[in-house]
Write a structure and sequence with these properties.
By secondary structure, the protein is α/β, with parallel strands linked by helices. Helix content is 32%, strand content 22%. Bound molecules: nicotinamide-adenine-dinucleotide (NAD).
């Protein structure tokens, strides 16, 4: 463990500050901390949307790093700061390399850095593909519940695009009290469809499983539709497929043609974020020249400011907010601190003496806990 010592400069301020320990949290630890906690995580995501809606957050636009030589790939930076009791800043840095999948390597990989509110020091680096999938699935399950109130609870769910995110969303629906009579599956890849079917059969969630050959059959057969493809442009274009007015979780953001959104109630997580990067909502704004087709945010619905009609298709398009990654990442960090299994990297912050090693320093506390002095 890192030894704690006192800082020397600027005594009035630094007496109450210290350099935190730096820890690394593996994917196995993240998964263990989150497993079976679906309801708790969904409540955490809801509370975080509320904080964000109340302005107790900083969530600048995500930065997309793209590559001329690898146009289908990208790495996205999501910096954020969240207040409330969480009080943590940080950055998710997440890659999407769709070409990985054919080689048996997951598409997305990520790290999340948590920064101490008081000193700005990074104090943890977490494997974050699981954090990201978890917060995305928790947000989708929350939306399914809140946007579906006032209409019969869907008994038929359809998953269009069935990779990791679809699996996490099914796990979250299952873990937060949903059950289905029928589960539809459609994917361009027969291997993905078969793999997801295998997962569903082993999940214990029940429901008759049908693998559909077309997106149209899947959508027409589902009251809750989950879109989790990697499509870069709209490929679902016929509004009549939605004549039965399903609840649509448009997690992959670019599947639906603007014409479909214009017939639906549109709910997003954050309007400014969603109207970028050629999402379907962004395309709809470009075509109509306005944002009038957007009805509000999920937080508006939760707060009762927006009512979702039961006799219209409702589409939830969540851009994915960095504040959610921070909230779930901090939850994981706190769990691991409590378990006593935090892997601290001793002396990670090495240059702590402003005028050289002769001076004293102060290091070694965990953020949010009493510093040793
Ligand atoms: N909004 C958010 O907050 C958020 C967060 C995380 C991931 N995502 C998005 O979720 C999507 C899914 O992620 P994943 O990790 O599960 O990806 P994945 O690569 O594991 O799976 C995607 C699946 O979609 C299938 N597919 C691609 N195009 C299709 C089409 N036109 N019709 C049917 N199937 C199609 C692929 O064959 C593949 O099986 C990605 O677009 C990702 O960017 C969104």
């Amino acid at each position: 463990m890192t030894t704690a010592r006192s800082l020397t400069a600027e005594p009035a301020v630094t007496q109450s500050l210290s350099v935190p320990q730096f820890s690394v949290i593996s994917g196995a630890q993240v998964q263990q901390a989150l497993q079976g906690r679906e309801t708790q995580v969904m409540e955490l995501v809801e509370a975080t949307y509320r904080l964000h809606g109340d302005g107790d957050s900083v969530n600048p636009p995500s930065y997309f790093l793209r590559f001329p030589d690898r146009p289908s790939s990208r790495i996205i930076a999501l910096p954020a700061s969240i207040g409330g009791q969480l009080r943590v800043d940080g950055l998710k840095w997440i890659s999407s390399f769709p070409g990985n999948v054919a080689a048996g390597v997951p598409r997305a990989s990520a790290v999340l850095i948590l920064n101490d509110h008081d000193t700005g020091y990074p104090f943890a680096c977490l494997e974050s593909s699981i954090v990201s999938a978890t917060r995305t699935a928790a947000s989708a399950a929350l939306a399914a519940d809140r946007l579906g109130r006032g209409r019969p609870r869907p008994r038929r769910v359809g998953f269009l695009g069935v990779g990791l995110i679809a699996r996490y969303i099914h796990t979250f629906l299952n873990g937060t009290g949903w059950s289905f009579d029928e589960i539809g599956v459609h994917d361009l890849s027969a291997d993905s469809a078969a793999g997801f079917r295998g997962y569903l059969e082993q999940s214990g969630g029940g429901g008759d499983i049908t693998v559909y050959d077309t997106a149209e059959e899947l959508i027409r057969s589902s009251d809750l539709v989950v879109l989790a493809t990697v499509a870069a442009q709209p490929h679902v274009t016929d509004p009549t497929w939605f004549d039965h007015h399903p609840v649509v979780l448009h997690v992959s953001l670019r599947d639906l043609a603007p014409e479909i959104l214009l017939t639906a109630t549109n709910i997003v997580d954050d309007i400014e974020h969603c109207q970028k990067a050629d999402t379907s909502t962004h395309l709809a704004e470009q075509i109509t020249g306005s944002r009038d087709f957007l009805d509000g945010t999920l937080n508006d619905v939760i707060a009762g400011r927006v009512t979702v009609p039961a006799d219209r298709t409702v589409v939830f398009s969540p851009f994915g907010l960095g504040v959610l990654d921070l909230a779930v990442g901090k939850f994981v960090y706190d769990e691991i601190v409590c378990s006593g299994e935090l892997m601290v990297i001793d002396d990670f912050f090495h240059e702590r003496h402003r005028y050289g090693p002769g001076a004293s320093s102060n290091a070694g506390a965990q953020p949010g806990q009493p510093r040793q002095r």
